[in-house]
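To whoever is covering the structure queue this week,

Two jobs came back overnight. Logging them here so there's a record in the thread.

Job A:
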Amino acid sequence: LSGRAVELIPGDSGACALHGAMAFKMREFQKAAKSFDCILQAKTDDPDAWAGWVRATIAAGEPGKAQERLQSALDRSPKDARLNYWFGVVLLRQVLPKKAQMAFQDAVALSPADVAAPLALAQMALDAGDSKRATALVDKIPSTTSTSDTTSIAVMRARIAWSNRLVDEADNQLRLALAADPTSIDALVLQIQTLCASRKPDLARPFLETALAEDPKNADVVDAQGQTYAASGNLQAAAGRFEQAIAYEPNRAEYYLHLGRAALAQGSFDKATKAAESAAELKPDSAEMRILQAQVLRVKRPREAEMVLIESLKLHPEIAELQDELGLT
């Protein structure tokens, strides 16, 4: 129906936006990108159209195309905060974290009230094991009445709390997020992950059902389904879900991390090795990725595994899991 609306009213931004959103949800990413591009041809500064086009173009496997177009747009409008933010998103997908960080910082400087860029910087800090910096970045975000912003901030605070093993605080923040938006995929997925990590897969299932009903082809939801299987002991089904998530989004290190853990638990060392290598390549500074790599290496090359952990501990001396793996605690 939305496609028919575009045919009947060519160039109408509302029809194109609706068609783009529907096509994206159906994973028809090239159609989605084309619809959002239709809006940008008439309104080059439309922030929602830029967001839709960038997300669809990345999902279609063309981050280089997105990077080139955004660079051209920034050459014309270097002080556009949203363009800087989306440029950072694309650079991050291109595994260029330092350049991405600079783009996010530019976005924050240009529009301090916008929450997307500081949250992206907070996530980068958290990925690097620096929860204090992540907390400081979130604390600096101005108060907001936006439901989506409130949800996003609560989810980030829950991630930070979980990384610090503050389970009750993480649960409280997730309750706030889901109270603001009961269908938030980010909040639902994180709730599933925390419950599975606490070995409570039965409690995670209602949240999984909601997420699957909302967006069954979302890669994060598919990955969360795999984590539910893994927590229930069904490692083969879990591996299948992780592989499907990777097929949807092949540049997400977390999916390889989860696949590697499941494969290692099954004794599939070749698959675990490949997954660990991919995870470490996508996030070379991540302690989680390095721990998995060391766990796989330990099977056949224990000395090399120890060196991986020692090098990672130099970067993240505060992370208890690294100390545990090295037998320092």
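Job B:
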Amino acid sequence: EDPALGIAATSVGPLLIGECVILEEGAAPAGLPGLNSDLACATPGAFPNIAYADGFYNPAGDFVEDDDPATVNCDPPELRVTKDGDPEAKAGDIVTYDVCAYNDSSTVALTACEATDTLPGVTLPAPFDLATGANFCFQYDYMIPADFPGTQVDNTATVECNVVGVDPATAAGSISASDDWTVPLFEMSGYMVKTCEPDPVSVDDDICWNITVTNDGDRDFDCTITDPDVPGWDAGVPLPGTVVAPGGTQSLGPACRTVMLSEAGSTISNTATAACTPSDVLYTNAIDVCDHPDADCSADCEVPPVVTPVCRTPGFWGTHAGTEKENRSFN
């Protein structure tokens, strides 16, 4: 028997003088479990155990017994997890994370490894196994809510595995490891103001539009302006400056055209759009500089109606008052 290995007292039959029975896994007598047990190395460190044997050595029934100790230096299970992701982001962005689980043990395999994350709603892999020295990597995305209240996204990935040879129902039969990755949030904010002048503007005069973009965030960005109703802006035109720096502004215009007679007595109204993206980080998410309390992306200019002059002949006032006609000639 070997209590440390869970081997109950089991008969191995009579032993002749000088005979030796070797008990080993795969070659043990019927009903006797092997002595090379994975259970022994489920716990790190030294694993001492003692095997006992006893029996009767003559017909008279004289009793004999012996024991022998053995200590196994167990290689502990080793699980390591690494997590990284985008270096920074802004509210509304999609952040990509990479997680890897490593079995750094050379002798202990891991099974039924499950990944969890403190981030809500992320898609994680199905349970996986890790052979000795193996690793398993996976990737997932997380969309930062547009109304995220903090200045950084804290998150932790955890992988928990069962240790081969240990009952997975027991706490001692599992091992876990974690790693975190904090994503600082930057604020990318700006607004656009569009104006037209003069207002009002007369037929046959020039009407001109100007645009100013202000950066009230903390990251540089650049913009492309589009306005289908303004000459030269219909296909999109970048702001003349390289970037709009935090606290800075960039202007576009004037872009002008002549007011037509058909526009008399109307309001010339049009709206510009702008695609603005960070210029110092690798993000393609555009911000809407028209969706800002200080933004005004539309401009309205009034065109007064054309007034036709009225001409009257001498003596007209005494005889034809109230029946005047337009465009009468003098004679």
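Note for Job B: The CA atoms of residues 162 and 169 lie 9 Å apart.

Please reply-all if you pick these up so we don't duplicate work.
Q.
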